[in-house]
Amino acid sequence: MQQAQEIQNKKEELSLSSFLDKLKFPLKVVEVIVLIFMIIIFIFPFIWMISTSLKTTQEAIQIPPSIIPSKIVIENYIQAWSSGPFLRYLGNSLFITLSVLVIQFIVMVPAAYAFSKIRFKGSNILFGIILIGLMVPSQITFLPIYMMMSKAELINTYVPLILPFMTSSFGIFLLRQNFMQISDEIIEAAKLDNSSDLKIMFKVMLPMAKPAVITFVLFSFIYHWNNYFWPLVMSNSDLVRTLPIGVAMLKESEGVTNWNVVMAGNVMLTAPILLLYTILNNKVKNAFAYSGIK
User: Fold this and answer.
1) What does the pLDDT look like over 63-98, one tens digit per residue?
2) Is 64 helix (H, G, I), strand (E, B) or coil?
3) SS3 for 256?
4) Dist CA 263 CA 253 (whole Å)
5) 108, 34, 90: which is closest to 240 by C-alpha?
6) Which of 291, 293, 294, 280 has its CA nearest to residue 179?
7) Residue 223 pLDDT more than 80?
8) Burial class (CB in 10 A: 0-12, 13-18, 19+), 215
9) Which helix (H) or strand (E) holds 253?
């Protein structure tokens, strides 16, 4: 009786296995279709932006719209660039973004090292406070910062565009996760060679956390490069305005929205980000794979 039951169970398992094998191909087809659909959703806005940037003004607003322009108009890029001090905007964006990145690393590398490799009282509480910073958007803090900068007469300078972003909760968290995976024996060996903590941080730990560093550089660069709200609030002239503000100012020209020129400006704004992400794509994947973030 028991043998008959075991035979029956094996038959049921085989039939279930056979049924699942038959489902593999249809499920694979559905998976590919879903992936293609998602790719189209994410890529189509970029295709539309580039297509519109190469159209005439009439074709850019015609209904029904077309994806492939009937006539390629390169002059849209020339008009967008020459419509304002775009070289100044570009220089401001580069200076502010790179300055923020440098200062962030000077602050967050020692913080991540301390939270990962140094045991001290209250470290968990302090790290919890830093994580709370991930939940607070910068728009909430802009009013007190604006009032403080205004009283110090620093509005329309680079200071309020750089100083409030001198640290990053996400960067400290990401580097800490990577530093924790580095063996303590490596640090002990470095200390036996009379290496200081500063040298260990920047000469030993940081190179070993290269994927995480590259990931943070990419994320921070994208955020500060595209930041529109903060420079708009903290500046009132072209002296310190950034590229996103310059592109937004393209929207109105003689009372008419020239979408082809606006999209040409957007292409110039997003091109460095797309190029940077294409180069660093694999490093970003490795950072999340090895840091335990899912």
Assistant:
1) 787 888 888 888 888 888 888 888 899 999 999 999
2) coil
3) strand
4) 14
5) 90
6) 291
7) yes
8) buried
9) strand 252-253
d(CA 275, CA 278): 5
How far apart (Å, rounded) are the C-alpha atoms in residues 260 and 59?
9
As to burial, measured by CB atoms within 10 angstroms (0-12 exposed, 13-18 middle, 19+ buried), residue 90 is middle
Other Cβ atoms within 10 Å of 85 Cβ, number: 14
Buried b vs exposed e over 140-169: b needs ≥16 C-beta within 10 Å?
A: eebeebbeebeeeeebbebebbbebbebbb
- Enumerate helices (H) and strands (E) in the chain, giving the number of each: 15, 2
Beta bridge partners of 256: 253
**Helix%, strand%, coil% for the chain, nearest 5:** 75, 0, 20
d(CA 274, CA 127): 33
pLDDT digits (tens, 9 = 90+) for 18-49: 655 666 767 777 788 888 888 888 888 888 88
Give backbone dihedrals phi and psi of 257, rounded to 5 degrees, phi first: -80, 110
Structural Rg of the chain based on CA atoms: 27
pTM of the model: 0.78
Tokens describing residue 234 = 């903290």
Instruction: Read off the tokens for 16.
Output: 């279930």
Q: Which amino acid makes up residue 277? A: Y
First to last CA, the chain: 49
Alpha-helical runs (H) found in 118-227: 123-132, 138-151, 159-162, 169-180, 184-192, 197-199, 206-208, 210-226
